[in-house]
Amino acid sequence: MNEKNLLGLNKCFLNLDNPFELFQNWFDEAKKKEINDPNALALGTASKEGVPSVRMVLLKGYNENGFIFYTNLNSQKGNEIKENPNATMCFHWKSLLRQIRIVGTLSQVDDNTADEYYNSRAYESRIGAWASKQSTILESRDELLKNIEEFKNKFKERDKVPRPSHWSGWNLKPSSIEFWLDGDNRIHERLKYTFNEKNNWTKSLLSP
């Protein structure tokens, strides 16, 4: 590839062979510039029949093994992931005119990882994980509010709310990561990393 064409992606990134280093750089900038939820991403999943769905979730951790978010395992996305672990993520930072697209396979995090994050959440959020039967039909809003009060009465000690077995995290192990930078006249810059059969990342420039 002709790396001279990557000047718009910043000269200091030209020699980064690991996409996680570039992700870290961009994510750090997003945390400084984005007003709300720089860790927000669009998560795309599909049912076993291939019907797609997308929603916004929050990134709660990442390393070279993947990108982690948490959810009710019995929600629509949870059920779709159980049927079809292939998924995609898209970060869009409007203030930076940048996107990152990640494609990979989801697997559930271990219990210790899920417990550690769950216990870091606010009391009300931990109660909500028990009270909400995510994605199921509510007869009324009062039904949910009643459930919340019932679980607050059940778990009155704020530091002793156990993690429900139906609530955990998913880790997206990437097979490709693409970095997109806005360009004048829609001549954008796109740099794609692909994980190959030799367990290495290769870089390619893509046409806008």
Can you walk me through this structure?
By secondary structure, the protein is of the alpha+beta class. It has a single domain, classed as Roll (Pnp Oxidase, Chain A), CATH 2.30.110.10. Helix content is 27%, strand content 34%. It has five helices and nine strands, in the order H-E-E-E-E-H-E-E-H-H-H-E-E-E. Strands 1, 2, 3, 4, 5, 6, 7, 8 and 9 form a nine-stranded antiparallel β-sheet that branches. A hairpin with a 5-residue loop joins strand 8 (189-195) and strand 9. Helix 4 crosses helix 5. The radius of gyration is 20 Å and the shape is elongated. The chain starts with 18 loop residues before the first helix and ends with a strand. Mean pLDDT is 92; it is low at 1-7.
- Kindly name the structural category: alpha+beta
The N- to C-terminal Cα distance equals 16 Å
The number of distinct helices, counting runs of at least 4 residues, comes to 5
- The helix content is 25-40%
CATH fourth-tier homologous superfamily = Electron Transport, Fmn-binding Protein, Chain A
CATH class: Mainly Beta
- Count of discrete structural domains: 1
The largest sheet, given as strand count, sense and whether it forms a barrel, is: 9 strands, antiparallel
Give the strand tally: 9
**Residue runs with pLDDT of under 50 for 5 or more positions:** 1-7
Strand content: 25-35%
- Architecture (CATH level 2) name: Roll
Look at the structure and give the mean pLDDT.
92
Strand/helix succession: HEEEEHEEHHHEEE
Which of globular, elongated, flat, extended, rod-shaped describes the shape? elongated
Q: What is the fold named in CATH at topology level?
A: Pnp Oxidase, Chain A
